[in-house]
Amino acid sequence: MRGGCRLLTLLLLALLRGLCRGREPAPGAVTCGSVLKLLNTRHSVRLHSHEVKYGSGSGQQSVTGVEASDDANSYWRIRGKSDGSCQRGTLVKCGQAIRLTHVNTGKNLHTHHFPSPLSNNQEVSAFGDDGEGDDLDIWIVQCSGTYWEREDAVRFKHVGTEVFLSITGEQYGHPIRGQREVHGMPTANHHNYWKAMEGVFIKPSMDPAKHDEL
User: Fold this and answer.
1) Short-list 72, 81, 86, CA closest to 37
2) What is the pTM (predicted TM-score) of this model?
């Protein structure tokens, strides 16, 4: 309950900031500082994390896919690869390096050379504290145009290990029964397309340097 209240507060603050500055959520653009859910278009599950650690591999916080669209643990904040490199309200370009920070736990989407527990692909975890992790938290947004558009399916390629954020359908048992394994795959295919879904999308700013990050 506490985590859900914190998330609701963050989303309301983001919305109020945008409205006060004439920057209400607008369809079309995905911008730095936005908070969103990501849907895997092949398997119809949203990228998710929670305070459940892997029982093998790195032992870090697990990342999964869930079918529910209303789960508060599926929100991620878009940030730059370093502080100041993704000013709030700036359009995210195709080919740009970003971090995805899990809103409720403050950990970054991360991967490394550990096998994933079910498929033996590459483990994807959530890592760091209060949004600060390491160089293995950085992903490249791969899309076909100039900017990441909300209606487009995009891929996320990991900078450090060159795998794609993927789901192939394996399901966990207890204690996260029915949730899908998220992992890294070395090839681009239909298992690694993602689409921006629910969230607070900051309207593009003409002068993003004047605005702080969410």
Assistant:
1) 72
2) 0.84
